[in-house]
Amino acid sequence: TSPFIIAIDGPAAAGKGTLSRLIAEHYGFHHLDTGLTYRAVAKALLDAGLPLDDETVAEKMAIEMELAGLDRSVLAQHHIGEAASKIAVMPAVRRALVAAQRKFATKKPGTVLDGRDIGTVVCPDATIKLYVTASPEVRARRRYDEIVGGGGAAVFDEVFSDVKKRDERDMGRADSPLKPADDAHLLDTSEMSIDAAFRAACDLIDVAL
Ligand code: C5P
């Protein structure tokens, strides 16, 4: 029997991360936040003082990336996310990271993978696919509240324009652009609490498992 795979895609700050963690915990599945794999490669390049636009150098870092060492707390910074979305346009980087992600996806009894291209490219045969979105305004508001709530400083208009820029880069790239898979269930969380989004997701997943 093939393992259960729950694929969760969507734009930055749509609530995918929290939702994916809750779902993985609820079903007792392994969880991989694939954004961290791109962030880890970006951070390794930044730390080594290497350029972000050399595909051969970035590919080498991607091949060496270890899933076991991924930690959101050291990869969360805004400039790392920006750098990640730059190296994520490179096909050689994506090829290396997708291979590692596919291997993770076969873990038993099942897995939750979240990212941008899980349902379309990484796991096109996933048991169930969710595409989680919210309006750019709502996503910017959540990101802003998160930064300010954590004691940081932010200007809403800047956060809003960053969200829109990241969307453009992720949706506009040639290799594996962000878009819902044809068979994905759309979940717009603009007017939903995390709790309501979690319950809506479980209702969809329960039917598929
Ligand atoms: O989701 P997160 O903000 O951590 O992802 C950082 C960047 O990594 C995204 O903006 C996107 O460009 C890239 N990414 C990707 N494919 C994935 C996950 C993330 O291209 N599956």
Automatic annotation (TrEMBL):
Name of the top EC class for this enzyme: transferase
Subcellular location(s) of the protein: Cytoplasm
The Cytidylate kinase domain, residue ranges: 6-197
Keywords, alphabetical: ATP-binding, Cytoplasm, Kinase, Nucleotide-binding, Transferase
Catalyzed reactions: CMP + ATP = CDP + ADP; dCMP + ATP = dCDP + ADP
EC number(s) given by UniProt: 2.7.4.25
Pfam (any one): Cytidylate_kin
Principal place of residence: cytoplasm
Coiled-coil segments on the chain, per record: none
Gene Ontology MF term list: kinase activity
HAMAP family on file: Cytidyl_kinase_type1
Name this protein carries in UniProt: Cytidylate kinase
Organism field: Sphingomonas psychrolutea
Source lineage: Bacteria, Pseudomonadati, Pseudomonadota, Alphaproteobacteria, Sphingomonadales
